[in-house]
Amino acid sequence: MNLFESQINELDIGLLEEVESQTSADDKRSLLALHLGCRRVYRQFHWLEIGSHLGGSLQALVRDPACVRIDSIDPRPELLGDERLSPQRYPENSTQRMLELLGRLPEADLDKLHTYEAGTPELHGSDFPPAHVCFIDGEHTDDACAQDARFCREAIRGKGLILFHDIGIIYRAVAAFAQQLSSEGVDYDVAYLPDSLFAIELGNGTLLEDPAVVGRRLEAGQGVLWLLRSNDRYRALLQARRARTLRRLGLLPRDF
Question: How many domains does the chain have?
């Protein structure tokens, strides 16, 4: 067994630490658990990601021959809308910079990495090869997340896993997506993976039942969405108060 095989089997977050990312140590372990699960369930798999920035979450994937294709969708803005009121800044957000950083990793295969400098409203999921996992980590607004989820549903062709980062921010869109699936009678399962990942697996999937993923799952996935949605009125009140304060300070336009 080579070093990479040993690291992925142990969920060694060192595989995801060469390139900077906005994921916690527990997020990294959960991502590696899904990666390992894909190797065992599918043998060879296709990963699609929305919002790659520097490529931090792609580090192990570009090195693993079992991952045969990666699609990275990112329109590369320097400012992204966010439900936390203020837009989030992503300096030097370029595809070229991501490729340079990933290219420095040992045995990185960038030929399987396909990049798209566009948002999902400009693309069609059905135009992409079927993905086994879609990771949504783009603009953290409810509207953008809802659009990304619809795109990913097309991209997995009715069977696969859609993974959302920062569930504590975009939970309303995720809850609405799950409710839509239920209303249509779609078979799906959910899981909350620490710290801030929420997975929805459509079809008769087995990835969430892989031992590596089961070891990361926290109970009551649907309950997490209910709990977060119960926070809506407090979030709305806080946002209104912040907006009023920023207007008084002249830091926010009066018509915002």
Answer: 1
